[in-house]
Amino acid sequence: MATGSNPYFTTGTLEFLRDLKQNNKREWFQSKKADYENGVKNPAKAFAIAMEGELERLAGAAQKAKIFRINRDIRFSKDKTPYNTHIHMSWTNRDGEQGGPAFMFGLSPEYCTLGCGVFEFSKPKLETFRGHVAGGAGEKLAEIIGGLEKSGVRISEPDLKRVPSGFPADHRQARFLRHKGIAAWRDLDGPQDAVVADLDKVVVAALTPMLPLWRFLNDLT
């Protein structure tokens, strides 16, 4: 756990990402490699590892961190800037099946956000999710989501305009049947909220209300 005046992330972290947004070129990045290592990469790695233990205690399952690469995949993108100007990471069950729910963290000069859910279900898992939602478990999910929304948590938008074939268009859980993945997000006041010594506690406190959603998705079989 970070303590005292040495938080995981600092104003220098945000300054680097802000400068990178203005100078998103390989030459500039290479000249600032040491600043990136010290201000972004190393703090992100330390935070990701520390949160594995915090989230294991929260969820009751060993967690494995993933930090998304700063290099952008520009092969099929019109935007050819080579680097991401944010820090994104996630934690998933270390011993769980691929495609299970994740806890998520995002930081940029514009935002700090925390999430829980699945971006996109695999085809078998999507069928399982829809079967659960169409049955009795749909009421449970609606209760979980309703509680989160009342507390100010935002929910990812449905992927489909219409209920998928095989289900009535006016199904009671039509909203959730239109999802191909589902995630809840808590936006902190701003990126400055990540520049604190007790960031791990801040993150756990924000993610704790999302635990019922994590459990619902984790129990899909």
Low-confidence stretches: none
Structural class: alpha+beta
Alpha carbon gap, first and last residue? 35 Å
- Mean of pLDDT: 94
β-sheet strand percentage: 5-15%
Question: What's the CATH first level?
Answer: Alpha Beta
Number of helices: 8
SSE arrangement, N to C: HHHEEEEHHEHEHH
Order of strands in the sheet with most strands: 1-2-3-4-6-5
What's the structural domain tally? 1
Number of strands: 6
**Helical residue percent band:** 40-55%
> What is the annotated CATH architecture?
2-Layer Sandwich
* CATH topological fold name: BirA Bifunctional Protein, domain 2
Rg from Cα:
19 Å
Describe the structure.
The protein has helices spanning 11-22, 26-31, 33-59, 123-134, 137-150, 174-177, 199-207, 211-218; strands at 63-67, 87-93, 102-107, 112-118, 154-155, 182-187. With 221 residues, the protein is an alpha+beta fold. The protein has a single domain, classed as BirA Bifunctional Protein, domain 2 (2-Layer Sandwich). It has a six-stranded antiparallel β-sheet with strand order 1-2-3-4-6-5, with helices on one face. A hairpin with a 4-residue loop joins strand 3 and strand 4 (112-118). Helix 1 crosses helix 3. The chain starts with 10 loop residues before the first helix and ends with a helix.
